[in-house]
Automatic annotation (TrEMBL):
Family: Belongs to the peptidase C2 family.
PROSITE patterns: EF_HAND_2
Listed GO MF terms: calcium ion binding; cysteine-type peptidase activity
Pfam families with a match to the protein in the record: EF-hand_1, EF-hand_5
Domain EF-hand: start-end pairs: 57-92
Cell compartment(s), UniProt: Cytoplasm; Endomembrane system
One GO BP annotation of this record: proteolysis
Keyword GTP-binding found: no
SUPFAM superfamilies: EF-hand (SSF47473)
Principal localisation: cytoplasm
PANTHER family named among the record's database cross-references: CALPAIN SMALL SUBUNIT 1-RELATED, CALPAIN, SMALL SUBUNIT 1 A-RELATED
Protein name, entry field: EF-hand domain-containing protein
Amino acid sequence: MQINANELRTVLNRVVAKHKELKTEGFSLESCRSMIALMDTDGTGHLNLQEFKHLWNKIKKWKLVFTHFDTDKSSTISSFEMRNALTEAGFQLNNQLYDIICMRYANEHMEMDFDSYISCLVRLEGMFRAFRAFDKDGDGIIKLNVFEVSNLDSNQLYCTPLWLLSSANAGLEQTGLIMSY
Ligand SMILES: [Ca+2]
Ligand SMILES: [Ca+2]
């Protein structure tokens, strides 16, 4: 079995349509492509059964976090609720990074619907993974030279300004991403 982004989109949208506690206008093809990029460990450009299961378990876990932290039962996650949700999902962000993430993924009312929330977590997961790969001594700080920056793929490149921004303006203890795992 090999799943492409279109098929993944169909499956996900069919499932979320059944859940009234998850407000969404449906997953975009772009966010399904990002999910495949995140989980495609053997580099086929598709998800095999194992990779799909791995993604599915993540989404299930993130869905539980979503419903648990949607404390006002709006079926969306507010930027206020998101802070606790991210911590529960294992992402410790400094304030600056947190604000950037909310600005990027929340709507004008500072609410994220389910697909934006999942896209946000997929992006963070990819970002943390890339960060860990660079952070060889595990001190939560990375230094990239210009060649490493220019060799980052587009997914990682999106994250780079966040790293640079957080390291340029924050104290040493907040440099880069301080991670909880
Ligand atoms: Ca694959
Ligand atoms: Ca809510």
